[in-house]
Write a structure and sequence with these properties.
mainly alpha, 117 residues, flat, Methane Monooxygenase Hydroxylase, Chain G, domain 1
Length: 117
């Protein structure tokens, strides 16, 4: 029984050595001095205003929706590859999935999330 855990302990030991070694190597290799213009948020543009001001969440919602719709597109590819072997059941299953996707798209369109102005 304990011999089954030997690979796990070896892996943990290797990781325990590699992580500090990588951190030490990055500390040795990195640049010592940094240019203030390089550290600016937009090089060449002087920052103005307060960084704590409120922003609309529209861009975050838009990005989340992009990820969700992209994940749905990723699920379409394996279905398309195995379309013939899945038969009618696979077609109906994917049509239900696409109907849910279209309903979600219509819902966010009506909510006005896709408008930038």
């Amino acid at each position: 029984m304990p011999q089954n855990y030997v690979p796990i302990f070896l892996f943990a030991a290797v990781i325990g050595i590699l992580i500090p070694a990588a951190l030490l190597a990055s500390k040795i290799v990195r640049a010592r001095n940094s240019d203030p213009t390089k550290l600016a948020s937009e090089p060449g543009i002087t920052p103005s205003g307060n960084a704590r001001e409120q922003r609309t969440a529209r861009s975050y919602i838009f990005a989340t929706m992009f990820v969700l719709f992209e994940a749905e597109a990723i699920f379409l590819f394996p279905w398309a590859v195995k379309f013939k072997s899945l038969g009618r059941f696979g077609l109906i299953e994917m049509l239900i999935s696409l109907v849910v996707l279209v309903i979600g798209y219509i819902w966010i369109w009506r909510k006005g999330v896709l408008k930038w102005v």
